[in-house]
Design a protein that fits this description.
By secondary structure, this protein is α/β, with parallel strands linked by helices. It has 16 helices and 19 strands. The chain has an 8-stranded parallel barrel. The two termini are 25 Å apart. The structure holds alpha-D-glucopyranose.
Length: 538
């Protein structure tokens, strides 16, 4: 790479981010739960994969009601994950390997065990009373009809002071009051603490939920059914965007830091709402997850529609980021329908993820095609699964231990794993796929390498060639003189693909063709579930 190119490499924009659920990545101390020393041990693997940064789900001190999304101290590492020294070692070693570290920042709520909440609960006159959202009930009922995202009222009565507090999730996760200036300042100091240590940015948990209606108006309900609540007064309030603007100001006072917003919209794919937080790419957060790929059905046209809607909604200067799975949803490989050709579909999806415009996020294990794992009632750990079993068995199935090798417990732990491994670990694991040139893992590695070495793939414009209607999604990525063509066949049938005019194409990566293959073509036969990337000239 020339030095000029190096200078304009923006890691969070042009690079690839890997998402680690730390309980399940690698256990180093044998207690059956993944930890920081485990991540350190696997830095070599991540370097080899070619990623630029890792987002690690929360590792702060926590009673673990929601496995770390209930924080009781933002400045401490929970002993289950290790110590602050371990964290500093990870940060240093990751940086030495050219890998950035993004922490999860949970602004909407703390744990009810956080000293702030304990003090806030002490009395109506507590100096921290207003740091949380407290309210009188009306004649023995909660203050209004707001529902928690996990079901039931979002209000919990505190017997001691006779008031209710708001919790958008579990009652052990009381909501912070982002209208209180003191809380605002104190919380920003928690973020500064990590930025000063050298952390490269934050994934902002449920950032569109943090502000609620000042007047506490009832949310409208559909068909008179309380569960069908429209979160008009509890989500996407203006103040959430204001806080996001302040976070951006804070990050701008450091070098090269990033913020990524988790913004689920209802209906899924309401990308205009998600895009509001990007505010022109300069004042808002750097990236907002677009979950529409996750909710899209396996169909080239459906993908085309959600991708174009997302790109069209981006404000000037805004940059997309794309994701196929995360710790809250089913693993992508099992969402592809019919349970057939899943490996091939996973390669098509990976090619899309890594060649479409925007920053790709890879959920740990996705690169080896890890499946959802059956977790029996007795083994369920997710509080959502416990509450709703058997209607909903929870999120554990996408959080099971990383499958490193065919040894006992897949090389994840020498102890008893906190969640069972998928039964296929002895045949589906990193070691085995490293040895197979055409494995999914090697496909990911090759794609990441290619993406890095070809400007159009990491920063080029996106010019669709088809709208996916005949099963093929094809698009150009283009910078200056260089053009790359990506052709993805979402169907199990051979298809004819046509360009508007004759072109020269050289295959650079393909599931069906040899690299270097040269073609002068206008019409081309594309195999079932083929993913091909060509360098193209007229
Ligand atoms: C986010 C997290 C999820 C957590 C919730 C509450 O959606 O991704 O795991 O349960 O926030 O913090």
């Amino acid at each position: 790479m020339s030095s000029q190119k190096k200078e304009s490499w923006i890691w969070w924009k042009h690079g690839v981010i890997y998402h680690i659920y730390p309980r399940s990545f690698q256990d180093a101390d044998g207690d059956g739960i993944g930890d920081i020393r485990g991540i350190i041990r696997r830095l070599g693997y991540l370097k080899e994969l070619g990623i630029d940064g890792i987002w690690i789900s929360p590792m702060y001190k926590s009673p673990m009601v929601d496995f770390g999304y209930d924080v009781s101290s933002y400045r401490e590492i929970d002993p289950v994950f290790g110590t602050m020294d371990d964290f500093m070692e990870l940060l240093g070693k990751a940086h030495d390997a050219g890998i950035r570290i993004i922490l999860d920042m949970i602004l909407n709520h703390t744990s009810n065990q956080h000293p702030w909440f304990i003090e806030s609960s002490e009395s109506l006159a507590s100096p921290k009373r207003n740091w949380y959202i407290w309210k009188e009930g009306t004649m023995g009922t909660p203050p209004n009809n707001w529902k928690s995202a996990v079901g039931g009222s979002a209000w919990n009565l505190d017997e001691q002071t006779g008031q209710y507090y708001l919790h958008s999730f579990f009652k052990e996760q009381p909501d912070l009051n982002w209208r209180d200036p003191e809380l605002h300042g104190v919380f920003f100091d928690e973020m500064k603490f990590w930025l000063d240590l050298g952390v490269d940015g934050f994934r902002l948990d449920v950032i569109n939920l943090i502000a609620k209606d000042k007047k506490f108006r009832n949310n409208p309900v559909l068909l008179g059914i309380p569960a069908l609540q429209q979160h008009v007064y509890t989500r996407n309030r203006k103040r959430s965007v204001t806080v996001v603007t302040k976070i951006r100001e804070l990050l701008n006072s450091y070098e090269n830091r990033v913020s990524i917003g988790e913004i689920y919209t209802h209906p899924p794919g309401d990308v205009k709402t998600a895009a509001r937080y990007l505010a022109g790419g300069e004042n808002g957060i750097h990236l907002a997850f677009d979950f529409s790929l996750i909710f899209s059905t396996w169909n080239a046209h459906a993908y085309y529609k959600s991708i174009t809607a997302w790109y069209a909604s981006l404000p000037e200067g805004g940059w997309p980021c794309n994701v196929l799975s995360n710790h809250d949803l089913l693993r992508s490989i099992d969402r592809f329908p019919w349970r057939t050709n899943r490996e091939e579909k996973a390669k098509v999806a990976a090619t899309l993820l890594l060649t479409m415009m925007g920053t790709p996020f890879i959920y740990y294990g996705e690169e080896i095609g890890m499946h959802n794992t059956h977790v029996s009632k007795k083994q369920i750990r997710d509080p959502l699964g416990k509450r709703y079993w058997p209607l909903f068995t929870g999120r554990d199935k996408a959080r099971t231990p990383m499958q490193w090798n065919p040894e006992p417990n897949g090389g994840f732990t020498t102890g008893k794993p906190w969640l069972p491994l998928n039964r296929d670990f002895s045949s589906r694991n990193v070691k085995q796929q490293e040895g197979e040139p055409y494995s999914l893992l090697n496909h990911y590695r090759n794609l990441i390498k290619l993406r890095r070495s070809h400007e159009p793939l990491h920063r080029g414009s996106w010019l669709p060639v088809t709208n996916g209607q005949r099963g093929i999604l094809a698009y150009f990525r283009k910078t200056g003189e260089e053009r790359m063509l990506v052709i993805l066949n979402f169907t199990g049938r051979q298809k004819t693909f046509s360009l508007p005019e004759h072109s020269y194409g050289k295959v650079v990566l393909s599931t069906h063709r040899s690299p270097g293959e040269f073609n002068y073509f206008q019409h081309m036969q594309i195999g079932a579930f083929e993913a091909t990337i060509c360098l193209v000239s007229e």
